[in-house]
């Protein structure tokens, strides 16, 4: 039987501790047997004291891990050995660890930075007892070997970048293997550089995980990596980018995820289904898991028995999210049309002296739209609260701001001030309009 695991990225919207068991029951029913938790900056890591954004305490995580294990899940953690560390390196405290000043990566030639990663490996292993794996990340290290120290250290190597990467990866993997866990690494560095033979320099316990979200099977590099004799897993995405422009529910995005999962299922490899929270700690939040309910069902080995039309909580709440998503899209379209129509009305006023036109065709619909946007915000807050989800304020604030980009907010202003601000905004588009609306 192939393995069917879920990667849950907590740097985005995730369940609060009191709802954790409920989501695990869903995952159990859908047919997932293992959980890989990426706590990222949201856990109070002792290793990174002072730079984490503590949402979960040590007792929260220990309890969440133990609940999952008691339910029969294999539970492991994912940390970062090199890249995707912007949350830790952006501030001054660890600025000296950066590779050539880039905030996303440590320099693996900096002994203090390497010691910090080793300390983190030890803390992660202690936090999640009996974990079968520790995933070390290792993906998307685009600034690899760009500093003078890394270049000097690798100057005799045939492939300097790969030699720096492998040296650090091997040491981290060995540290994990010595403690009795199997290290995992993302495989994109090996696939993009077609360096498949170099996998053999890693400890034999190492597992390479090949994430690939937009190709069709056969996936690039999969056969070559399998030929090394190392254990290779595939990784489709249940939730991933693009970030935010398609609203808060987009059926096409979900369909694309389902296609990706099916392609990977055809390969017969062990699968780690990735559920990203956002593309980096500093980027847009992806919508809640409910948005991707059909993709979760597709990925689960018992998912065929689950339907979004069912009467379980996840199905009911997923339908609720869809209906909020449709409202969002409708308001997005209306806002765009209203802004265009107001621009036209301003031009009409160049030719026809009829000031009341503004009130009827501009102010009233703008007020109505704004009130509906605020109402949607309240409904979104209720959704987050009812489903025990984190990051409500950030998600709702960001997405509502994107619905109200062009208009002043008429709820907050007197009518005449709204019109004045509207004209000022439109002057940016048509500079020949003066603030009284005339050309
Ligand atoms: Zn370096």
Q: Rough shape?
A: globular
| DSSP strand tally | 11
Spatial strand arrangement across the major sheet: 1-2-3-6-7-8-9-11
Task: Provide a count of the helices.
Answer: 14
Bound molecules: zinc ion
Count of the separate structural domains: 2
CATH class of the largest domain: Alpha Beta
- Rg over CA atoms, rounded to whole Å, is 25 Å
Helix/strand structural class: alpha/beta
The helix/strand series, from N terminus to C terminus, equals EHEHEHEEHEHHEHEHEEHEHHHHH
Can you walk through the features of this model?
This protein is an alpha/beta fold and 439 residues long. The chain has two domains: 4-306, TIM Barrel (Alpha-Beta Barrel); 317-429. The protein is built from 14 helices and eleven strands. The protein has helices at 20-30, 58-70, 86-89, 111-127, 148-153, 160-178, 188-192, 222-226, 251-267, 293-299, 313-351, 356-386, 392-403, 415-429, and strands at residues 4-9, 34-38, 74-78, 98-99, 102-106, 133-135, 182-186, 207-211, 231-235, 237-239, 270-275. Strands 1-2-3-6-7-8-9-11 form an eight-stranded parallel barrel, surrounded by four helices. A two-stranded antiparallel ribbon has the order 4-5. Helix 1 links the parallel strand 1 and strand 2. Helix 4 runs parallel beside helix 6 (160-178). It is globular and about 80 Å long. The model has no long low-confidence stretch (mean pLDDT 92). Zinc ion binds at residues 99, 107, 109, 147, 149-150.
